[in-house]
Specification:
Arc Repressor Mutant, subunit A; disordered N terminus; 8 helices; 11 strands; alpha+beta
Amino acid sequence: MSRFQILPEAVEGNDTTLMPCAACDVREMTICSVLGGHELDRLAQIVARVPVAAGQTIFQEGDDAEHVYNIVSGSVRLFKLLPDGRRQITGFLFDSDFLGLALKQHYAYSAEAVSPTVVCRFPRGKLERLFDDLPKLEKRLLDEASNELIAAQDQMLLLGRKTAAERLSSFLFALARRQNNRHVELEMTRTDIADYLGLTIETVSRTFTKLRKLDIIDTPDAHSVVIKDASVLKDMAEGE
């Protein structure tokens, strides 16, 4: 896995970072949503908009937690490597999601782009210094930390109590809600899904086939799923 390279135009505080903050398509869904006018200008002075190629690493577990990030577009997988070398994916993030929060001085997980991705990168130290003047920004960041905790708890339930069909149904139903569409785009691979759900790739494939035979979903290709019966999928996700 290679680290992403910051392009020359993605330098914190230069003119190219000021306009995207005001015109950003996802601003109203990010931490920036609580800011306006000169407050947004101050934040723009420390942000860099950075392109990340598919498969490239944004940061690795154990790296110094020098930056935090908002996803502008694309998708990111979060994962940890187990002592035996296996990979456990702990989550997938998409446009408007926040990542890189760390209670300690080092990242607790790795982050890698699934598809071509653009992130807004904030130096952690400079962002923390803004909190004194912009307390509502700090509160918004704490909300993001709470969301991460909830997501971690959901993942524990997913892996600890649910069957393979319930796990895959939960995953697909969550994606359908996130995309607000019954035609779900799967940018991640079946291996990614298996590593997230704590299953083998063979079990994931069999479970997709099972849901398809039950006429709950259709799979036009490897990267899309059509939800044919959302209510049944929801019931299956909840173990009913």
